[in-house]
Hints:
The chain is of the alpha/beta class and 354 residues long.
Amino acid sequence: xxxxxxxxxxxxxxxxxxxxxxxxxxxxxxxxxxxxxxxxxxxxxxxxxxxxxxxxxxxxxxxxxxxxxxxxxxxxxxxxxxxxxxxxxxxxxxxxxxxxxxxxxxxxxxxxxxxxxxxxxxxxxxxxxxxxxxxxxxxxxxxxxxxxxxxxxxxxxxxxxxxxxxxxxxxxxxxxxxxxxxxxxxxxxxxxxxxxxxxxxxxxxxxxxxxxxxxxxxxxxxxxxxxxxxxxxxxxxxxxxxxxxxxxxxxxxxxxxxxxxxxxxxxxxxxxxxxxxxxxxxxxxxxxxxxxxxxxxxxxxxxxxxxxxxxxxxxxxxxxxxxxxxxxxxxxxxxxxxxxxxxxxxxxxxxxxx
Length: 354
């Protein structure tokens, strides 16, 4: 039965039942498509082909039985985001995950499982316990105190699927991925157009949710924020750079630190306050300057912004190229998996070869 796959593909495309029927030149009615989604009826071969064309998927995809679901979905969103926008994003994430997992199956790769740090989950009874959690995760993963150059790549190596999508009102999501007869996986979706320093903090924040266990009334969001700052900017290294106590800190220093650690100037100011390197008054003065210069509002363009492409996940793309090179898929299938045209695929392959 194709009901679940059809509904996911339609939701991912943002089409209503009526809009999908129109995209098929009204070959069947919206009511008929609704019956297909509820598994009350099956489309004919002709209708199946039309559905696949309108939704830009293959007939094999609609007929496949391997189904996945997202559990414990946590959205990073603006106030007022509609439930429909959330549902569309979940469907798009599932749609892309299915492609990702299909390529792993083609290559007979064991889907990389979430490598939970040995010391996790970390109890957080006080917000400062998040510092210890971040330090333990770095130790478990052998990261030392060095800046992390490519956080998305690191998390994918540890079994977290990172998806980058074009989003509007929602900045991303994190969830568990359930597949029939498979171990649960983890996924984080980030907004493709976001500056990379903000992507990195969002990724570290979601990692925090995966490894901490707040208790005693601790605010989980604040704990995850504290974890993210500590994971990206270790306390000992920051104190060695700027000192233990400062009456003020210059924008120039913060920009230089941003270039080293790959986090925003604002995140660094928070980090200095959290570690009592600067006091609340100095922190307030900094944020007044940030607001005056427009760094607190969209598009959040600070000095030395890191272009969005600098922190993009690449593993899925590499696997598609590998499957193509090994003759497991053709160019049209590779292009379909990547969501691009064959011409664009050829252009990318030329760049890779060069």
